[in-house]
């Protein structure tokens, strides 16, 4: 709906490439002038379109090529899935579907299960989202709606710079800065304030699920915030003006006029951030503690699917061991698909038939 | 003039490349520094032979040589009987140098080197000894003012030869370890936290008070880390040194099996450092390419004559004399 309203506005504000013949409506000029003079006066685009004859062949072949491109995505996903299944067949046969719900991981006796790794991956990624999303939305709202012009460029530049830092650098920073901070300051503080919840129990060594989540949150923050900023910038100003004209305050304008219009895009941005969090390997490996345990306490060390592959693949010797590691890759693949599907379903459930409303 | 020289050099390189015998190997990362030094020195002496080595890890080395995709492999742990029988080519083990693993720790206020018995180390990683002032640690370290603090055990999270040597030793000195976690490049650690690589473990130990870990001797020496002494099979507390490692190998030489697949952890001998091990080259005994086999055999001979002498400069322990003599005879079988 908003797009149809935008069309006339955009045409009036952005003139066509050749400005001179525009004041008269093109239809009128075509009727008045002789065909020979029309060619000279018309815009180059019109000229091209009138001379090129039928476009149906080009259109059809273009559509076919694009269909092929779209299908290649299916083909790639299917190919990855098939290869993962084929190479993990030993462990699939040995452990069956129980592989995904077993807690064991013992390379020496050949006993494998993926549950602690699935738990670690989901827990760190979701915690990271909980920390990063409010912060990223705040950054984006400030940049698009409230930021003085002088600050806008430096803050945008810095957020994009954060996105460009390699993950191993984040990992190193986490080991030398975040881990001691966590051990000596943040951890004891959390224990004092929230120790009663049971989430901050046990000895805090500075490495563990919480530290990994924090470094993940910092890593996905720039992705979510810069995408959200672009999406909010795309909301037409007429929306903001309309809401303000109805008597809304600035915050109400942001909430009703901007956030509501861009919510689907924002969810998309969050999904991209979640995707990175689920698959992040290096930085997480350096601070998570790499111990396959399921523990309620966020101070406890954990392990993620991506980390265990990175850690153990190069030295894995037995066939079953290798096969189990590849099945861990399959588990990561499935976790990513399931999490994305759930998120899409949620978006669909929230936004279908939803008219613009105040709350 | 200058151009001509460059052109001549390029021509020489191209012709050398065309005639060169390319030998490809892959495997262990631990001996990579000395291997790459040996290979480049050997190629400088024999321009017709070019040895490429990829340090992809012992597991990868065993896999690739078993599949026959490389001309030789390298591993920090000997191949098992199952692996040998499953391999597509017949593989021979040739020991090259020795490595050792040392215990490192961080206890604020304690500057003297601590002593550790093998069973104490095992019980720290088993979670049975949890405090630094445990009576069994105190018994080995009379006079040390050990604090009443929880021990944080740190282990290698990535599969590694270092972990194999360390757990091989623990399996020999602790029955609880042998029946529990066992030995391997990666194992199921009962407690503690994992860090990637020697540098990960060392970094974690360095910055975490009251932590305990294990790293490769070479890593500890080149980074000037202080480390603890370990009690050897004769009951003597010994700090690791290249001399102590070679002594351990010399002790094992008398009982050395013909295929060199031997563990020398907890070796007998008053001067033998207990957590040490050979690292091996995995050589197919019957190569499909006779020229390659000949070049490889020639390299191995050069390694014994000249290479071993350079090991100590890179802080690797060289093979003891007895083992060198044995290897010299085995090389004759490479065809």
From TrEMBL, chain B:
CDD domains reported for this sequence: PBP2_PstS
Organism: Tunturiibacter lichenicola
Protein name in UniProt: Phosphate-binding protein
Keyword Transport: yes
Record key words, sorted: Phosphate transport, Signal, Transport
Subunit structure: The complex is composed of two ATP-binding proteins (PstB), two transmembrane proteins (PstC and PstA) and a solute-binding protein (PstS).
Stated family: Belongs to the PstS family.
UniProt KW Signal keyword: yes
Function of the molecule: Part of the ABC transporter complex PstSACB involved in phosphate import.
Positions of the PBP domain: 17-304
Annotated GO biological process: phosphate ion transmembrane transport
Signal peptide start-end: 1-20
GO cellular component: ATP-binding cassette (ABC) transporter complex
InterPro entries membership: ABC_phos-bd_PstS (IPR005673), PBP_domain (IPR024370), Phosphate-bind_PstS (IPR050962)
GO function terms (MF aspect): phosphate ion binding
Pfam families, sorted: PBP_like_2
């Amino acid at each position: 709906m908003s797009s149809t309203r935008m069309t006339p506005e955009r045409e009036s504000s952005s003139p066509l490439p050749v400005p001179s013949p525009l004041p008269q409506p093109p239809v009128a000029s075509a009727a008045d002038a002789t065909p020979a003079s029309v060619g000279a006066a018309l815009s180059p685009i019109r000229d091209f379109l009138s001379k090129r004859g039928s476009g149906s062949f080009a259109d059809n072949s273009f559509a076919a090529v694009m269909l092929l491109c779209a299908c290649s995505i299916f083909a790639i996903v299917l190919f990855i899935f098939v290869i993962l299944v084929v190479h993990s067949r030993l462990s699939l046969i040995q452990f069956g579907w129980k592989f995904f719900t077993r807690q064991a991981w013992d390379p020496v006796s050949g006993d494998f299960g993926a549950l602690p790794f699935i738990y670690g991956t989901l827990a760190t990624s979701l915690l990271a989202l909980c920390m990063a999303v409010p912060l990223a939305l705040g950054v984006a709202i400030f940049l698009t709606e409230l930021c003085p012009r002088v600050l806008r460029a430096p803050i945008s530049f810095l957020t994009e710079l954060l996105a460009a830092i390699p993950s191993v650098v984040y990992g190193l920073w986490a080991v030398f800065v975040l881990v001691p901070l966590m051990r000596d300051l943040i951890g004891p503080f959390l224990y004092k304030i929230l120790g009663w919840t049971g989430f901050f129990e046990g000895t805090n060594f500075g490495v563990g699920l919480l530290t990994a989540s924090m470094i993940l949150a910092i890593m996905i923050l720039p992705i979510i915030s810069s995408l959200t900023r672009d999406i909010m910038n795309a909301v037409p100003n007429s929306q903001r003006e309309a809401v303000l004209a109805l008597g809304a305050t600035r915050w109400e304008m942001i909430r009703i006029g901007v956030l509501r219009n861009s919510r689907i895009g924002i969810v998309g941005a969050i999904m991209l951030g979640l995707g990175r969090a689920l698959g992040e390997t290096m930085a997480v490996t350096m601070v998570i503690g790499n111990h396959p345990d399921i523990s309620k306490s966020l101070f406890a060390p954990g392990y993620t699917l991506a980390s265990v592959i990175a850690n153990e693949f190069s030295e894995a010797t037995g066939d079953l061991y290798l096969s189990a590691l590849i099945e861990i890759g399959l588990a990561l693949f499935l976790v990513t698909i399931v999490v994305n599907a759930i998120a899409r379903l949620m978006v669909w459930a929230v936004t279908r038939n939803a008219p613009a409303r105040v709350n | 003039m200058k151009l001509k020289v460059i052109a001549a050099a390029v021509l020489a390189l191209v012709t050398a490349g065309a005639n060169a015998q390319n030998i490809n190997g892959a495997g262990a990362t631990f001996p990579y520094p000395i291997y790459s030094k040996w290979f480049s020195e050997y190629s400088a002496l024999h321009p017709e032979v070019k040895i490429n080595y990829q340090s992809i890890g012992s597991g990868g080395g065993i896999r690739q040589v078993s599949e026959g995709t490389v001309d030789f492999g390298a591993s920090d742990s000997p191949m098992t009987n199952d692996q040998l029988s499953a391999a597509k080519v017949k593989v021979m083990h040739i020991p090259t140098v020795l490595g050792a693993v040392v215990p490192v720790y961080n206890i604020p206020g304690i500057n003297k080197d601590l002593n550790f018995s093998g069973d104490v180390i095992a019980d720290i990683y088993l979670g049975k000894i949890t405090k630094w002032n445990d009576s069994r640690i105190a018994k080995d370290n009379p006079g040390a003012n050990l604090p009443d603090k929880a021990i944080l055990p740190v282990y290698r999270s990535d599969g590694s030869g270092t972990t194999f040597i360390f757990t091989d030793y623990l399996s020999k000195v602790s029955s609880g370890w042998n029946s529990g976690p066992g030995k391997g490049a990666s194992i199921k650690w009962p407690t503690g936290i994992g860090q990637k690589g020697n540098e990960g473990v060392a970094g974690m130990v360095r910055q975490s008070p009251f932590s305990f870990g294990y790293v490769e001797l070479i890593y500890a020496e080149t980074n000037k880390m202080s480390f603890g002494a370990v009690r050897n099979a004769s009951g003597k507390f010994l700090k690791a040194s290249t001399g102590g490692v070679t002594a351990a190998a010399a002790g094992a030489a008398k009982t050395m099996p013909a295929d060199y697949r031997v563990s020398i952890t907890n070796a007998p001998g008053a001067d033998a450092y207990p957590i040490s091990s050979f690292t091996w080259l995995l050589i197919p005994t019957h190569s499909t390419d006779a020229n390659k086999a000949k070049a490889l055999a020639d390299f191995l001979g050069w390694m014994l004559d000249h290479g071993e002498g350079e090991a100590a400069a890179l802080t690797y322990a060289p093979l003891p004399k007895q083992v060198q003599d044995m290897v010299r005879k085995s090389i004759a079988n490479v065809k």
